[in-house]
Amino acid sequence: MRNFEYESPESLEGAIQFLSASQAKPLAGGTDLIDHLRTGRVVANVVVDIKKIPELNVLEINDSGLRLGAAVSCMKICQHEGIREQYPSLTDACTIIGGIQIQSRASVGGNLCNSGAAADSTPALIALGGVCVIAGPDGTREVPVEEFCTGPSENILKQGELLTEIRFPLPQGKSSSHYRRFIPRFEMDIAVVGVGASVSLDDAGEQITAARVALGAVAAKPFLAEKVDEFLVGQAPTEEVFTQAGEIARGLISPIDDHRGTAEFRTHVTGVLVRRVLTEAAQRAAAK
Questions:
Q1: Global confidence as pTM
Q2: Where are the domains of the chain?
């Protein structure tokens, strides 16, 4: 590992100033960054610890919805009763990001900024309609989570910019969500396919009024399956409908062959997971 300077600002303005320097990298949990620095995958002259910044540690649910700071650990999310009840797909994702030690350090914000195609939290964030709040030298901007990642390990952040929080709308009526992934075995903790979905039902629980399905590990970046969402609205929440949704999802992906699974296998699993995730999300919504 090459030498680097370490900074630990306590204000957002200070972090932006340090991150504006050449080859500066933010440190939240560091569960990926430290390993990347050690192996040379990432080069940094300055590492900026952002864990002490208040804006990045906000965690609250109010009348507008959920505010999730970029540095909030997965463990805190898992332990938050309001998130478990109203944003369960987020809990689903955070409980399978590594073990307890990793979850105590890792953050959803860091997971998103790593911008991995197989990231577990990103499909859940997309399914929940998350919006990224980004601060930088030119001020603050907001971007939907589905527009944040641009490719493998790439995103829209510019020099000096920092993801401060992710905001989610408050679920209304019979609404809920779910995230599930397929892995070849527990020792290989990277999704072969990951699916997040949110479903809203009418008061009778007999018709889908809104849906968002997000797919991970089957394209260059996690993405919102808009054609699936359009198909689901107005349909009954049945196994037949969810099976058809899975077939539509299969036609939207561009998976690769690698040591974790073939493109053919990923295509098959995508349809299965879409059906199962939608079924669970709908069941949760109906129980509201």
A1: 0.95
A2: 5-49, 54-169, 174-286
